Amino acid sequence: MHDLTQEDLAKEIGITRQTIIAIEKGKYNPSLELAFKIAHYFKVKIEDVFFYDQNDEKTKRRSLKVE
Amino acid sequence: MFTCGGFMNRRKFTLCSVIIALVLVVLILLSILVEISVLVVPAFIAGLALMFILRSRVETVTVDERTHLIHEKASTLTLQIFVLGAVLVGFVLMVVSSRGYADLSQSGFTLLYSASALSILHLILWHYYRRKYGG
Question: How many CA atoms lie within 13 A of B116 on its CB side?
């Protein structure tokens, strides 16, 4: 929808591409600040990008998918 | 041709870092073999300076909150492993020395003192950061 690469998003937000990959895979839970930054970048609400899965306490998987 | 000059991406930076580290290792090994210990410190400083310059030329972000988290976790585990290992080995050396098998009490004391010093430093810094972040 945004025709955006992980590298572009990482550069725009000021994080590494590896962090984007880790968030996508559910291996890393971003801080609230970073979650807000990502949501703000896409001009959407934070809950449109991330969701908290109570049943999956361990991974707390969030849905972020970038090309 | 591959060069380490100009602005670079992270992959190029990593490659340059590996090359610098290898050169440093070779230099240190050479200085030990040729017994010119004077070379070690300048080579190490030059390597660090070069890394610092290269890092400022990296286009992409190299450090973020995930990197910090990785460093924190690695540091904590390193500290725990070192302190535990040093205390264990230190006690073993002290026991071996006290039973007269070998005179390793100095080494034992050094390990125990190092573990204590590291633990105290960790405790001081822990209190400092706890206060800093309002704990």
Answer: 8
Does CATH place domain A1-67 in 1.10.260.40? yes
A7 in contact with B, Cβ within 8 Å? yes
Q: Are A66 and A4 in contact (CB under 8 A)?
A: yes
List chain A residues with CB under 8 Å of B68. Answer: none
Rounded CA-CA distance B130/B114 in Å is 24
Q: Provide the angle, in degrees to the nearest 10, between the axes of the packed helices B65-98 and B105-132.
A: 150
Tell if the pTM clears 0.80, that is, is over it: no
Domain spans, chain A = 1-67
Region of poorest pLDDT, from B5-9, B36-40, B54-58, B111-115:
B5-9
CA distance A51 to chain B (A): 19
Please give the ipTM for the structure prediction.
0.77
Q: Is B61–A16 a contact, with Cβ atoms under 8 angstroms apart? A: yes
Distance CA B41, CA B47 (A): 10
